[in-house]
């Protein structure tokens, strides 16, 4: 099968995000100018550079009470900071709860019964029990083609790792079972790893 996105795929459901899988989930926490905290998951998310460490996530929709975007991007525009909280399998229901189209004055930490902690390098809350948190300073927001598509880039200014996730000096993903997004309503987990040596190593 071949299709051009501009012409449509003719299938019951869009296959695009089922093809680009698995995708890590950036559970983005932000703080509004009114001091309210927000938490929402984004599966268009990844690390993009080592030095300095940088990450990105993309928001692809809008809410009536936020104009051209969602709460996360609106808050980051105001504050210039955000935190990426890593999602483990045990937090799947809480993460899903925070994905709802809640009003901008809602606190998703409270809705999902999640304990907050204050970030160290930025004025933002983080998910205290998450396996890891990346505190980020905004570097740029890029408006992408299409309605309400924004890519947010940030430099990591602080890193939290849960002590039980450190094994023999390494951050051990098998100790917490990372959650990843597939297509449609599907998710998966990382339950095994293997290593490959690069040519010349």
UniProtKB/TrEMBL annotation:
<dbReference type="Pfam" id="PF01613">
    <property type="entry name" value="Flavin_Reduct"/>
</dbReference>
<feature type="domain" description="Flavin reductase like">
    <location>
        <begin position="18"/>
        <end position="173"/>
    </location>
</feature>
<dbReference type="GO" id="GO:0010181">
    <property type="term" value="F:FMN binding"/>
</dbReference>
<dbReference type="GO" id="GO:0016646">
    <property type="term" value="F:oxidoreductase activity, acting on the CH-NH group of donors, NAD or NADP as acceptor"/>
</dbReference>
<protein>
    <submittedName>
        <fullName>Flavin reductase family protein</fullName>
    </submittedName>
</protein>
<dbReference type="InterPro" id="IPR002563">
    <property type="entry name" value="Flavin_Rdtase-like_dom"/>
</dbReference>
<dbReference type="InterPro" id="IPR012349">
    <property type="entry name" value="Split_barrel_FMN-bd"/>
</dbReference>
């Amino acid at each position: 099968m071949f299709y051009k996105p501009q012409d449509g795929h003719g299938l019951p459901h869009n296959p695009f995000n089922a093809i680009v899988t698995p995708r890590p989930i950036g559970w983005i926490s932000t703080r509004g100018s009114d001091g309210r905290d927000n938490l929402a998951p984004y599966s268009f998310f990844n690390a993009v550079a080592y030095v300095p460490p940088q990450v990105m996530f993309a928001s692809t929709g809008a809410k009536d009470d936020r104009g051209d975007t969602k709460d996360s991007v609106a808050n980051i525009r105001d504050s210039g900071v955000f935190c990426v909280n890593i999602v483990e399998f045990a937090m799947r229901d809480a993460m899903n709860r925070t994905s709802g189209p809640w009003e901008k004055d809602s606190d998703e930490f409270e809705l999902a019964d999640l304990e907050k902690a204050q970030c160290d390098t930025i004025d933002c809350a983080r998910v205290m029990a998450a396996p890891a948190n990346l505190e980020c300073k905004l570097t740029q927001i890029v408006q992408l083609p299409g309605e309400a598509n924004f890519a947010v880039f940030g430099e990591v200014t602080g890193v939290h790792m849960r002590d039980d996730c450190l094994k023999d000096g390494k951050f051990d993903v098998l100790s917490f079972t990372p959650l990843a997004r597939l297509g449609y309503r599907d998710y998966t987990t990382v339950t095994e790893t293997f290593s490959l040596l690069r040519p010349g190593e």
